[in-house]
Each structure stands twice: as C-alpha cells, then as structure tokens.
Amino acid sequence: xxxxxxxxxxxxxxxxxxxxxxxxxxxxxxxxxxxxxxxxxxxxxxxxxxxxxxxxxxxxxxxxxxxxxxxxxxxxxxxxxxxxxxxxxxxxxxxxxxxxxxxxxxxxxxxxxxxxxxxxxxxxxxxxxxxxxxxxxxxxxxxxxxxxxxxxxxxxxxxxxxxxxxxxxxxxxxxxxxxxxxxxxxxxxxxxxxxxxxxxxxxxxxxxxxxxxxxxxxxxxxxxxxxxxxxxxxxxxxxxxxxxxxxxxxxxxxxxxxxxxxxxxxxxxxxxxxxxxxxxxxxxxxxxxxxxxxxxxxxxxxxxxxxxxxxxxxxxxxxxxxxxxxxxxxxxxxxxxxxxxxxxxxxxxxxxxxxxxxxxxxxxxxxxxxxxxxxxxxxxxxxxxxxxxxxxxxxxxxxxxxxxxxxxxxxxxxxxxxx
Length: 419
Fold this sequence. Notes:
It comes from Flavobacterium terrae. With about 425 residues, the chain is an alpha/beta fold. It has helices spanning about 30-35, 45-60, 70-85, 105-115, 125-135, 150, 185-195, 215-230, 295-310, 370-375, 390-400, 405-415, and strands spanning about 5-10, 15-25, 95-100, 115-120, 160-165, 200-205, 230-235, 240, 250, 250-260, 320, 330, 340-345, 365-370.
C-alpha cells in the first residue's frame, strides 16, 4: 500500500512534540475525521475504538511516558482544529441528523447543514471529490458503500438519509420488480441501508431520465421497493428545475422522498417555485478571467463546423453561447458540457495564449465559463473551496446537485418530521 507521511513539530508549555500523519488509501482517514466531527456528541462512540487506534498510529511522542497524557491532548486539539476550522462547519445547535451517500462534493450536506442538520456519516468513492469535500467540511468520506465493512460504519438513529444515486437498469426477475430485483445496482445499497437503519425519512435525487428509463420499469421497481418492501410512504416523485429556485440554470432532476410509517405522515407537498428571474450576469465573474478560458480560433472553427454539419441533418447538436440576460443550460461533465455554456466576455486584454493551443485566442470574446461560475450555477457560495484542477472541478460541479432546489425540498421534509 502506498503511504505518504507528513510530520509537524508542535510546541506546548516550552516542549516540542513531533506529530506524524500517515496518509493511506483506506477508511482510516474517514473514521478519524468522523470521530472528531462527532467529538462533542454521542455519535463519536460509534467511531471511537477504531479512531483511537488510528490516533496511536499517527502520533509519535518525543517526551517521557509520564507526559503522554499532555501530548495526547495537544495532538487531539490540533486535529480538532483542522476538522472544525473549515468553511462549512456543523451547526452548533443542530436539530436533526442525516447521512450523505454518493456525496460528491457535498451539495446535499451544504443544503441540510443550512437547515440546521448534523451529518453523521458520508461516503463517496471518487478521490478528487473527497479532496473537495474534506477542504470544505473537514471530513473525509468513507469509500465504496457497496462493501459491507463500509456499511458497518453507519451509525443508528439518524433522521434523514440523502442519496444522489446513479441511474442503472435492473434485471427484473419477479413479476412486480422489487427489493431482490435491484441486487447488483447502487440503488440496492441505498434500499439495504434504509431497511437496516429505518430513518424517519429519505431524500433521493436522480436524472430526469429515470422517469422513463427502461420504459418506466426502473422507476416502478424503485417505488415498489420503497413502498411495499420497505413500507415507507412515498408520494409521487417530482421533477424540479433549478431555475425555479433562484439560480440561472435549466437543470431538471427527479426527486423522490419517503417517510417511515411510524411518523404517521401520509401527505407531502413539494416546494413552491420562486417567482424570481435570475440571469447569468448575476453569477458572472466580477473580474477579467484568465486567457486560458478563451477559445482558440482553431477550436472555435471546429465547433462551428460541427454545429453546421448537424444543422444540415436537422439535429440540434452543437455549441451554445449564453447571453448575460439568459439562463445557462444544464452543467454536466463530459461531452459538450462546457461547449453548450459558452459566454461572450469582451473584457479580455491579453490575447497571449497561456495554454498549449495551436492557434490564436479568438477576438470575439468567446470563452468557457469558469469553475467558479459553474459553482454559482449550482448554488454553491463563493467561500466554497475549489482545491482541485479545473478539469476535476468541472466534473465535480457537473455531477453535483443544485443546492437551492435540494434545500427547498429538504425544508418541506423537515417541517413534517420535526413537528
């Protein structure tokens, strides 16, 4: 196993202590940060034994044995500072607990923390997304949620399960299509956790296409599993658009919510849309952006040729330029994600290429949106840290949920379960 060590020298009461941090590709970083994040509440007991074992491995003492208690406290306070001194700490007076599955960069977490929630478990397999999550929330997500040893870290007695699980086809063996027919898919793992932990509510998000996926069989199986196999009240799923919740992005996603039978909840209304028009200019970069975001003349010509070929065939494929008074297309990773959200920005002053392009920077002011603009289009505030490369950032924000739509829906859930 590849390991990387970093060593810091700390001084307390005139004495120096060496603290060694070992970075490893396993769940120990997740265990430790989850333990520290729950240090002041009862949930820490769930992670405590393994976390303390890990602390013993990463802290090396240079003083005498009788002083270990003092050094241990110094090291612990340093580690607590690292996980608590982040842009989005846990609310001090939280009113409910939730878990964050397929967490990405924390869109669900940000929304539910804004509503007074405490995240007690999170999982995400992508290593770059974990970096962004840790930078903003001070917590390293656990890894593969399909593994039994990862599921074993999930504590009991949380209120809401959140998951933006991928859309996958099911191999439906039975006549109805239910829990057993979802085995081998990531939805099965979500359903399995709901079955084991029995949260008061769950909140699932997926692409709009889930509604008609496999001629509607996929959604029908999901709803049958949640309603009949797991015995939750699940109202009809709703497709919500991010543009109706205060951000200028045309992004439709299907939301599925459910309530435990013990809550007695038998009706639910999705949030009302906001009568508020917001356009791209309100999320546009305030200052001149780096030349690297501007298209080269050669690449722009390639896009124009590509669009012209499809127009001749009657197709609508091709690049799009979003005007300042318009709303953006959905930001997605891969394919034409960035090219469908080009903008015109004449503020450029330096046309010297800053990347290895084969031609000149175009003089029309056509550029890609920046990662920060994509962050704003998904409802992330400007103090949200982007610690990864642009390529990773586009992927992460393209895969994320739209925070305001999530928050508005979660608020309606909480109105019911916190009564």
